[in-house]
Design brief:
Ammonium transporter fold, 18 helices, mainly alpha
């Protein structure tokens, strides 16, 4: 008896499962702790429960039908795959395969179960990311219905178009690990959802006080290191390109974080470095390098870190004050900036900086090696391809998010009632993040305790003066 089929490589399979676990840790506990620490104390448990519930809902949706919609046989032209389960013995233990990529890349050397789980953690983190746009007012029941619908009609389509061999993959669009499929999608959908659901209570917007910055730091650290699996796992092989992607990820992130900190020190009104500002820069670097990690060299990674962080810093400072619709939509944690804008520009920079000498798959004989080439390396068409793919994601995901929420709104309230918004976790879930021995009872007086915790520290972008015209 032997433990491995002939096609399985233990090293590749071990790395793929490890990388998937690292990405899973980015959601639970990293984003649960990070977001849970950033929000007001009264919304910490609502935030954590939404993150964990989303992780569960996406996995159930993924194995029942959505994985095959993103990575299976084509169904509606080159737009989306045929829905179907991945619960049978061959789907779990057979050799991994993406039908439309068969022959266009090396044969996978791990089982389908490893591919299913690896792609699941990417799917799960996407709606978890844009929870940050709608915190402090979206109905938990609405979210439970929204997540499976969004994964089905938005995420699965994104994945098939760019990763499953669909339309934009066929055109040569490059998205190494999800700058478009995940981050641009999260920024777009989060922003649209925030607009449809409407703003938080005015009092909550004015006093959006993080309740535990040390928790935020812990979540941020796990998020950063988890990204080694995010980008390092996407070549699907434990080879040189995976190692290069990991180094590029960390270089871009370090540069982006310091770029934001320095801009805060010399260009902001306060002229002070802040941890939350540095956190924004860190996320910009992680997001910006994601579509490029295995396609650019180290210099390209540095450029992406600087450019994405600087662009988002400027957007964060000015768009919410002066530019419609950013000055009207309450994107609670600024997801449209650190994920949407950073993901967009990271993807466009691939069209400039992709280095054809960065080989993802080595060619043998008459078969050419696989790599990407941007405008600066003699392939100007790549930038137009990247822009077309980005526009598709923005338009499609924006429409899908809007329609799903409007349809759900015909049958149920999208927002938590205002009297419960005043109180938070205790009213919605019957628990609070730091309970005392004489556990809390639900009463409006609880709200005044929360609102008394005022501080100028916030991760939110600056806002124009709120008016009754807010959507």
């Amino acid at each position: 008896m032997v433990p491995y089929p002939t096609w399985l490589n233990a090293g590749d399979n071990s790395w793929q499962m490890t990388a998937a676990t690292l990405v899973g840790l980015m959601s639970i506990p990293a984003l649960a702790v990070l977001y849970g620490g950033l929000v007001q104390k009264k919304w910490a448990m609502n935030t954590v429960l939404m993150v964990f519930s989303t992780f569960c809902l996406v996995l159930i949706t993924w194995v029942l039908w959505a994985f095959n919609m993103g990575f299976g046989h084509p169904w509606i032209s080159t737009f989306v795959g045929i829905p179907g389960t991945v619960l049978g013995h061959n789907a779990l233990e057979g050799q991994a395969n993406v039908p439309l990529l068969d022959g266009l890349m090396p044969q996978f050397r791990f089982p389908q179960a490893s591919l299913v789980y690896f792609q699941f953690v990417f799917a799960a983190i996407t709606p978890i990311l844009f929870i940050g746009s709608v915190l402090g007012r979206i109905s938990f029941k609405v979210w439970l219905l929204f997540v499976p619908l969004w994964i089905t009609f938005a995420y699965a389509v994104n994945a098939f178009l760019l990763w499953g061999g669909g339309y934009w993959a066929g055109k040569g669009a490059l998205d190494f690990s999800g700058g478009y499929v995940i981050h641009l999608a999260a920024g777009t959908s989060g922003f649209v959802a925030a607009a449809v659901i409407g703003p938080r209570l005015q009092r909550d917007r004015e006093r959006a006080v993080p309740n535990n910055l040390m928790f935020v730091a812990v979540g941020a650290g796990i998020l950063w290191l988890g990204w080694n699996g995010f980008n390092g796992g996407d070549p699907y092989f434990a080879g040189a390109d995976a190692a290069a992607a990991v180094v590029n990820t960390n270089v871009a992130t370090a540069v982006a974080m310091m770029t934001w900190i320095l801009m805060d020190m010399f260009l902001s009104r306060e002229k002070k470095p802040t941890f939350l500002g540095g956190l924004n820069g860190m996320i910009c670097g992680l997001v910006g390098i994601t579509p490029a990690a295995g396609y650019v060299n180290g210099l390209g990674a540095i450029v992406i870190g600087v450019v994405c962080s600087a662009i988002v810093w400027v957007a964060w400072a000015y768009l919410p004050r002066y530019v419609w619709p950013f000055n009207k939509v309450d994107d609670a944690l600024g997801v449209v900036y650190t994920h949407g804008i950073a993901g967009l520009f990271g993807g466009l920079l691939v069209g400039l900086l992709a280095d054809p000498k960065m080989i993802e798959y080595i060619g043998l004989g008459k078969t050419a090696s696989f790599s990407g080439a941007g405008l600066f390396y003699g392939h100007p068409k790549q930038l137009a391809i990247q822009a077309g793919a980005a526009l598709t994601i923005i338009v499609w995901d924006g429409i899908v998010t809007f329609v799903i929420l409007r349809v759900l709104g015909l049958f149920m309230k999208l927002r938590i009632p205002d009297d419960q918004l005043e109180i938070g976790d205790v009213a919605v879930h019957g628990e609070e993040v730091y309970p005392s021995e004489d556990l809390v009872s639900v009463h409006a007086g609880r709200a005044s305790e929360v609102f008394s915790e005022a501080s100028p520290t916030t991760l939110e972008p600056p806002r124009a003066k709120a008016t009754t015209e807010d959507p």
